[in-house]
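Tokens in:
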């Protein structure tokens, strides 16, 4: 069973930067994707960015040009470099791993979440 451990959250001022790290235990099978989601109180979890095992990336429009997702397959580790942060980026950030099975994405694991707080 895959377990995810996130780190790197914290508090910064607007315009600052943070780097999130997600380490996955065990090999992730098949065609898969690792991604970052975020959630604010009372709202659904939304995709921030993801990175597939074949190298494609996908970003939420709100973070394009500011956030960069990267992945080290040898280390089973996912990163999210967040630059030019704004208060609207304040949320709990979750790491996710999913696998493509018969044309459908299946969630394999979620991390425990890490808080990112951006002050004006």
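Residues out:
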């Amino acid at each position: 069973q895959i377990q995810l451990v996130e780190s790197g959250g914290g508090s910064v001022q607007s315009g600052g930067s943070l780097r999130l790290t997600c380490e996955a235990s065990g090999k992730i099978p098949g065609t898969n994707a690792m991604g970052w989601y975020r959630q604010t109180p009372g709202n659904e979890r939304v995709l921030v960015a993801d990175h597939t095992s074949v190298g494609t990336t996908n970003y939420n429009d709100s973070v394009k040009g500011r956030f960069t997702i990267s992945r080290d397959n040898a280390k089973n580790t996912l990163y999210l470099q967040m630059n030019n942060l704004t208060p609207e980026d304040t949320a709990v950030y979750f790491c996710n791993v999913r696998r493509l099975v018969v044309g459908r994405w299946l969630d394999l694991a979620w991390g425990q979440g890490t808080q990112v707080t951006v002050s004006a």
